[in-house]
């Protein structure tokens, strides 16, 4: 599976919806690190104002993306305050 406990059938349906209505085909990530549910980031390379665009293929996010006219459903913005990294999501 590609995304946290989402059955392949529903992943395929979500990808079909995104192709048809968003004209978007997400690129499949290679499994590096070995666990495909982890993303390796270099903490020191993330700066205030960096943006993370997110879309979970669970069914609701592709519809939210379509309604917003985007290919993502959530936006996270990195903020550094007193040297501490925080990500604010909307």
Q: β content, as a range?
A: 15-25%
Shape: elongated
> How far apart lie the N and C ends?
26 Å
Q: Give me the strand/helix succession.
A: HEHEE
Oligomer: single chain
Task: Sketch the major β-sheet.
Answer: 3 strands, antiparallel
Q: How would you describe this protein?
A:
The chain is of the alpha+beta class. It has one domain. Helices cover 26% and strands 20% of the residues. The protein contains 2 helices and 3 strands. The protein has helices at 8-21, 60-68, and strands spanning 51-54, 74-81, 84-89. It has a 3-stranded antiparallel beta sheet with strand order 1-2-3, with no helix packed on it. The longest helix is centred in the N-terminal third of the chain and has 14 residues, at 8-21. The mean pLDDT is 83.
Task: Supply database-style keywords.
90 residues, alpha+beta, 2 helices, 20% strand
């Amino acid at each position: 599976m590609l995304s946290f406990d989402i059955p392949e059938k529903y992943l395929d349906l979500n990808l079909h919806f995104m192709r048809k209505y968003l004209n978007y085909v997400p690129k499949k990530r290679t499994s590096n690190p070995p666990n495909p549910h982890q993303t390796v980031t270099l903490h020191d390379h993330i700066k205030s104002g960096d943006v993370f665009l997110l879309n979970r293929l669970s069914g609701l996010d592709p519809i939210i993306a379509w309604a917003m006219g985007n290919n993502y459903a959530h936006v996270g913005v990195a903020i550094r305050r007193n040297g501490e990294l925080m990500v604010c999501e909307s």
